[in-house]
Amino acid sequence: MHARWVNGWHLFAVTSATITAFMLARLLSTNFSSPQDLSAMIQYSVRWAVPFIFLVIAISALYRLFPSDVTRWLMRNRRYIGLSFAVAMAWQGAFIFIVSYFHSAHYYAEIYYLRDELEGSSGYLLLAVMTLTSFGVFRRHISPGQWRFLHLSGVTFLWAYPFSVYWWNVFYYQTQHWFDVVFYALGFAAFSLRILAWGRKRIEDDVAWFQRGIGGCVMLFSLWLAATGHLWQPALSAALLSRAWSAELELWLPFWPFEPFLPLFTLALGVWLFSGARVVHGLPRRAAV
After folding, report:
1. Which residues contact 152 (CB under 8 A, 6 or more apart)?
2. Which of 58, 107, 56, 76 is nearest to 9 (CA)?
3. With contact defined as beta carbons under 8 Å apart, do 37 and 30 qualify?
4. What pTM value is reported for the model?
5. Domain segments of the chain: what residues?
6. pLDDT digits (tens, 9 = 90+) for 8-31
7. Contacts by 227-234 with C-beta closer than 8 Å and gap 24+?
């Protein structure tokens, strides 16, 4: 995959032009005097953005787990795939501005929630800084460690926001939309690959069979949790939010109390056990007491 049009800035030009063409085509049937139509454009633009951020979060794991020409191509073009995500999010930002400015009554009555605003604003701020530091003129002003921390934490946050939205749509609101189910599954798979790649990197050969067995069972349990959120979410949310401080925290702390991420936490625990949990970091497993 070395053709110019599928690499570098040519790839970015193709993907951003495709996104823009579909946005403009949809706008032809959009009534700008209708806040409902504009709200639908917000959701439509997000559905274009989400696949790119899910792919970005998975690329390095795909390369470690399945090295091939395709995954090497993805690694080479990860920057441009991320910038394509930024283009789609710019369209969403434009529609949010139009609705909030020209239809402010509808926006604050039907769309605006403090928690969503905090999560969304944080995401846009991270995206802006990540986009700027993707270019050398800005990147040279921060150290490699700072750049990695910024982009790793930023990509994780930008993955977590749509993933949690689709999780709530599937299991709490039970919207029955095919794209909610598909995007939830893709978001879960993308981060699961990162967890599996981490486990493969640290796996040991002398892990006891029963520990491997426990780890495998925990991983299978995480898949059950991922498919049955509607069964355990009500009880878990009630328990986690029973304290006044926790209920207050839910209003402004992004994603609190993290129900959508429980299956992934559980998967990470299972992979940790399966690959050889260490009690003391840096020491051989047998030496840990």
Report:
1. none
2. 76
3. yes
4. 0.91
5. 1-177, 203-289
6. 999 999 999 999 999 999 999 999
7. 229/167, 229/170, 229/171, 229/172, 229/259, 229/260, 229/263, 230/171, 230/172, 230/174, 233/171, 233/172, 233/259
